[in-house]
Amino acid sequence: MTTLPPRAGRRCHNALNPIHSSLYFSPDYAEELAGLGVEDSSAAYFAGRAAAMGAVGPGVVAATFYNFNHELIARHLPAVWDIASPEEVLAARLRAADATLRRLLGDATVTSEAMAEAAGLALRAAEGCTRHARPLYAAHADLPVPEEPHLAYWHAATLLREHRGDAHLAALLDAGLDPLEALVSHTATGKGMAPRWILATRGWRRADWDAAAGRLRERGLLDERGELTSAGSALRAEVEDRTDRLDAAPYEHLGAAGVERLTELGRGFLGAAVAAGAFPADLAGGKD
């Protein structure tokens, strides 16, 4: 039986996950990867997020990232490992995380007692994570914890993000949502990425998007305006609820007071990062 308030783990995840994700929108990350010779933005993303798993090919990344077109991944993997090894990419990623957090939050926040407290709480939560059936989390769990608190916080946010992410894929499979149907239905909630960003970064064509929307309409999940039906809204809610259940362990391990405090600290860091321009203004939501 849970000891946490409803959706407490989800709220904590929503406060921490964007700090992990901000790295991949950062000019510091692009500069670090370009310094290794990886100049294409898609290649840089695939390499950076997959490097913990080793020099994997497109099939592994398609399976663990879920919503990217295999054809796009195969243009860059495994070729990117001939340019930079996974070890070199991981070192560059951590340097970029350092530069990004210092730029977005400022040195005073990076070296603050609040950051050290947040890192400790997030790492404690991550102690409750489990490796089985969670390949992307498990690969990152084998990496050493950085010594500096702000990098330990980013590392812990990454562990918690990938732990929930692996659980989310299981929920999507159970709901019968293929990679693009998952994206279309998420965007229809108003909380997902804008279609222009999805089509630009995930390797899908507009025809693919329209076909996925058609399949959702046939299932009664999407209406002719591209809005979720009541059945579609219920399915998306169940996906998130099931993800919560599969991802409850780290937050149960931390406990209600710890989760509340970590969420509070995480929201403060996230607000500062967003105000400093961590994400493109037109990234989220809507139909275009």
Mean pLDDT: 96
The profile of the biggest β sheet is: none
Instruction: Summarize the amount of helix as a percent range.
Output: 55-70%
Strand content: under 5%
Query: What's the total number of strands?
Result: 0
Tell me the Rg in angstroms: 19 Å
**First-residue to last-residue Cα separation:** 43 Å
Uncertain regions spanning at least 5 consecutive residues: none
Summarize the structure in short.
The protein is mainly alpha-helical.
Explain the overall architecture:
- With 288 residues, this protein is mostly helical.
- The chain has helices at 8-22, 27-35, 41-50, 58-65, 70-76, 80-83, 86-105, 107-110, 113-126, 135-141, 149-174, 179-188, 195-201, 206-218, 230-246, 249-254, 256-275.
- α1 (8-22) packs across α11 and α10 packs antiparallel against α11.
Outline the fold blueprint.
Elements: H1 8-22, H2 27-35, H3 41-50, H4 58-65, H5 70-76, H6 80-83, H7 86-105, H8 107-110, H9 113-126, H10 135-141, H11 149-174, H12 179-188, H13 195-201, H14 206-218, H15 230-246, H16 249-254, H17 256-275
Helix pairs in contact: 1-11, 1-17, 2-7, 4-5, 9-11, 9-17, 10-11, 11-15, 12-14
Tag the structure with descriptive keywords.
mainly alpha; 288 residues
